């Protein structure tokens, strides 16, 4: 447990200060979050293993990236996997935990979009996202459609449809990305952390275009089916073939 908290303090507090300071000293303030994520992945000695049929992450136009969610380590791992193209939705408590990183990204990259839970007006929320997209330097938005951490589950969670509605209404490309194996290196529920090396299995699926579906319900049905299919394929690759 001492090792776990030591690694947590180093990655989430020390490196979250070192990353922004380094970006400032090298005159690259917009890369503050990138430097933190890169350092965190290097610290845990994570090795990325892509499935043979994996595609490239779309980084040249606005895209909703649908990731699975396992642990708190996803925040920096998924930043790297997205090729530093993704903006993140986060509650304001995150800013309190990582003040230096939050200040730098708000001033320069605006890649973490802080919000308060509880709002029921999706139209206003969607307009707020539109505004954030217009100001951000990164083209994509990372979304966890399962809505919460699934930890070591061997099944996908029930899809939350709020951000799928946004993608459908705005006709924004979506892309499913599955990352498995992080719990071997970082698992806050078991107070476990390892300095590796640890292999992660990654599947980046093809682009899904919402305007190809006649109704929102058909779009959601397809997303659910493809998310499940890609998860199961990646799960087998990570845990049954390694």
Description:
There is one protein chain. The chain is of the alpha/beta class. The protein has helices at residues 2-25, 32-43, 74-81, 92-97, 99-109, 122-135, 162-170, 216-239, and strands at residues 46-50, 63-67, 86-91, 112-115, 140-143, 173-180, 186-187, 192-193, 198-208. It contains eight helices and nine strands. A hairpin with a 4-residue loop joins strand 7 and strand 8.
Number of helices: 8
Distance between the termini: 27 Å
**Could you give the order of the helices and strands?**
HHEEHEHHEHEHEEEEH
- The mean pLDDT is 91
What would the principal axes of the Cα set say about the shape? globular
Ranges with pLDDT <50 over ≥5 residues? none
Largest sheet: 7 strands, mixed
Q: Tell me the structural class.
A: alpha/beta
Radius of gyration: 18 Å
Instruction: Give the strand order, joined by hyphens, for the main sheet.
Output: 1-9-6-2-5-3-4
> Strand-residue fraction?
15-25%
Helix content range: 40-55%
Strand segment count = 9
What is the topological layout?
Elements: H1 2-25, H2 32-43, E1 46-50, E2 63-67, H3 74-81, E3 86-91, H4 92-97, H5 99-109, E4 112-115, H6 122-135, E5 140-143, H7 162-170, E6 173-180, E7 186-187, E8 192-193, E9 198-208, H8 216-239
Parallel strand pairs: 1-9, 2-5, 2-6, 3-4, 3-5
Antiparallel strand pairs: 6-9, 7-8
Domain Phospholipid/glycerol acyltransferase: 53-170
Keywords: Membrane, Transmembrane, Transmembrane helix
GO molecular function: acyltransferase activity
Task: Please give a quick description of this structure.
The chain has 242 residues and is an alpha/beta fold.
